[in-house]
Amino acid sequence: MRHRLLLAVTGLYLLAVAWITLNPFPGDPHRNTFLEGLLTSFAATPALAWIDFDVVEFTANILLFVPMGVLLSVLLGRDRRWLALLLGVAASLTIEFVQLFEPARVSDPRDIVANSLGALIGIGLVLVAGGRRSRPDATPSRSS
User: From CA 30, how far away is CA 123, in angstroms rounded?
Assistant: First the structure.
Protein backbone atom coordinates (compact mmCIF):
# COMPACT_ATOMS: atom_id res chain seq x y z
CA MET A 1 0.00 0.00 0.00
CA ARG A 2 2.79 2.43 0.94
CA HIS A 3 4.62 1.67 -2.31
CA ARG A 4 1.47 2.39 -4.35
CA LEU A 5 0.99 5.70 -2.57
CA LEU A 6 4.61 6.63 -3.24
CA LEU A 7 4.16 5.71 -6.91
CA ALA A 8 1.01 7.84 -7.11
CA VAL A 9 2.67 10.86 -5.47
CA THR A 10 5.71 10.49 -7.75
CA GLY A 11 3.45 10.26 -10.81
CA LEU A 12 1.51 13.38 -9.81
CA TYR A 13 4.74 15.24 -9.10
CA LEU A 14 6.19 14.27 -12.50
CA LEU A 15 2.98 15.42 -14.23
CA ALA A 16 3.23 18.76 -12.40
CA VAL A 17 6.87 19.15 -13.48
CA ALA A 18 5.91 18.35 -17.08
CA TRP A 19 3.12 20.92 -16.99
CA ILE A 20 5.33 23.60 -15.42
CA THR A 21 8.25 23.06 -17.79
CA LEU A 22 6.54 22.08 -21.04
CA ASN A 23 3.37 24.15 -21.01
CA PRO A 24 3.39 25.99 -24.37
CA PHE A 25 1.99 29.12 -22.68
CA PRO A 26 4.32 29.87 -19.76
CA GLY A 27 3.59 32.84 -17.54
CA ASP A 28 5.55 36.01 -18.14
CA PRO A 29 7.78 36.52 -15.09
CA HIS A 30 8.03 40.23 -15.90
CA ARG A 31 4.28 40.55 -15.31
CA ASN A 32 4.61 39.06 -11.84
CA THR A 33 4.36 42.16 -9.67
CA PHE A 34 5.34 40.28 -6.52
CA LEU A 35 8.55 38.99 -8.09
CA GLU A 36 9.33 42.36 -9.65
CA GLY A 37 8.81 44.11 -6.30
CA LEU A 38 10.96 41.57 -4.52
CA LEU A 39 13.79 41.93 -7.05
CA THR A 40 13.54 45.73 -6.83
CA SER A 41 13.86 45.48 -3.03
CA PHE A 42 16.84 43.19 -3.38
CA ALA A 43 18.50 45.58 -5.84
CA ALA A 44 18.04 48.45 -3.38
CA THR A 45 19.70 46.48 -0.55
CA PRO A 46 23.49 46.30 -1.04
CA ALA A 47 23.84 42.91 0.67
CA LEU A 48 21.13 41.42 -1.56
CA ALA A 49 21.81 43.27 -4.82
CA TRP A 50 23.41 40.14 -6.31
CA ILE A 51 20.00 38.40 -6.29
CA ASP A 52 18.55 39.05 -9.72
CA PHE A 53 16.10 37.21 -11.97
CA ASP A 54 18.76 34.74 -13.15
CA VAL A 55 19.61 33.79 -9.55
CA VAL A 56 15.93 33.37 -8.66
CA GLU A 57 15.28 31.26 -11.77
CA PHE A 58 18.35 29.06 -11.13
CA THR A 59 17.28 28.56 -7.51
CA ALA A 60 13.70 27.77 -8.57
CA ASN A 61 15.02 25.11 -10.97
CA ILE A 62 17.03 23.54 -8.15
CA LEU A 63 14.02 23.54 -5.84
CA LEU A 64 11.77 22.08 -8.54
CA PHE A 65 13.95 18.97 -8.80
CA VAL A 66 14.67 18.35 -5.09
CA PRO A 67 11.42 16.38 -4.72
CA MET A 68 12.38 14.31 -7.76
CA GLY A 69 15.61 13.27 -6.05
CA VAL A 70 13.76 12.46 -2.83
CA LEU A 71 10.90 10.54 -4.45
CA LEU A 72 13.01 8.57 -6.90
CA SER A 73 15.63 7.77 -4.26
CA VAL A 74 13.01 6.42 -1.85
CA LEU A 75 11.16 4.62 -4.64
CA LEU A 76 14.26 2.95 -6.09
CA GLY A 77 15.88 2.12 -2.76
CA ARG A 78 19.33 2.37 -1.25
CA ASP A 79 21.17 0.34 -3.88
CA ARG A 80 19.80 2.33 -6.82
CA ARG A 81 20.26 5.93 -5.73
CA TRP A 82 22.64 6.37 -8.65
CA LEU A 83 19.68 5.57 -10.91
CA ALA A 84 17.62 8.28 -9.21
CA LEU A 85 20.32 10.79 -10.14
CA LEU A 86 20.56 9.43 -13.67
CA LEU A 87 16.77 9.72 -14.08
CA GLY A 88 16.83 13.29 -12.74
CA VAL A 89 19.50 14.28 -15.26
CA ALA A 90 17.65 12.44 -18.05
CA ALA A 91 14.40 14.22 -17.17
CA SER A 92 16.17 17.57 -17.29
CA LEU A 93 17.82 16.77 -20.63
CA THR A 94 14.46 15.68 -22.03
CA ILE A 95 12.74 18.86 -20.86
CA GLU A 96 15.43 21.09 -22.34
CA PHE A 97 15.36 19.15 -25.62
CA VAL A 98 11.58 19.45 -25.94
CA GLN A 99 11.78 23.16 -25.08
CA LEU A 100 13.98 23.64 -28.17
CA PHE A 101 10.85 23.06 -30.26
CA GLU A 102 8.46 25.20 -28.20
CA PRO A 103 8.49 28.79 -29.51
CA ALA A 104 7.42 30.27 -26.16
CA ARG A 105 10.09 28.35 -24.23
CA VAL A 106 13.82 28.90 -23.85
CA SER A 107 16.14 25.93 -23.56
CA ASP A 108 19.11 26.75 -21.35
CA PRO A 109 22.05 24.47 -20.39
CA ARG A 110 22.13 26.15 -16.96
CA ASP A 111 18.73 24.60 -16.31
CA ILE A 112 20.25 21.14 -16.75
CA VAL A 113 22.87 22.00 -14.13
CA ALA A 114 20.29 23.45 -11.73
CA ASN A 115 17.82 20.58 -12.16
CA SER A 116 20.55 17.96 -11.75
CA LEU A 117 21.81 19.73 -8.64
CA GLY A 118 18.26 19.73 -7.26
CA ALA A 119 17.91 15.98 -7.83
CA LEU A 120 21.30 15.43 -6.17
CA ILE A 121 20.26 17.52 -3.16
CA GLY A 122 17.06 15.48 -2.87
CA ILE A 123 19.06 12.25 -2.89
CA GLY A 124 21.39 13.74 -0.29
CA LEU A 125 18.44 14.60 1.94
CA VAL A 126 17.29 10.98 1.79
CA LEU A 127 20.81 9.80 2.64
CA VAL A 128 20.99 12.15 5.63
CA ALA A 129 17.51 11.20 6.85
CA GLY A 130 18.25 7.49 6.37
CA GLY A 131 21.55 7.79 8.26
CA ARG A 132 19.83 9.42 11.20
CA ARG A 133 17.18 6.74 11.35
CA SER A 134 19.63 3.86 11.41
CA ARG A 135 21.93 5.37 14.03
CA PRO A 136 21.37 4.40 17.67
CA ASP A 137 20.03 7.23 19.79
CA ALA A 138 22.70 7.03 22.46
CA THR A 139 25.19 4.65 23.89
CA PRO A 140 24.28 3.29 27.32
CA SER A 141 26.21 4.91 30.11
CA ARG A 142 27.94 2.97 32.84
CA SER A 143 26.97 3.83 36.36
CA SER A 144 29.49 3.60 39.20
Answer: 33
Supply the Cα-derived Rg of the chain in whole angstroms: 19
pLDDT in tens, 41-100: 989 989 998 988 889 999 999 999 999 999 999 999 989 999 999 999 999 999 999 999
Long-range contacts of 83-87 (CB under 8 A, 24+ apart): 84/119, 84/122, 84/123, 85/116, 85/119, 85/120, 85/123, 87/119
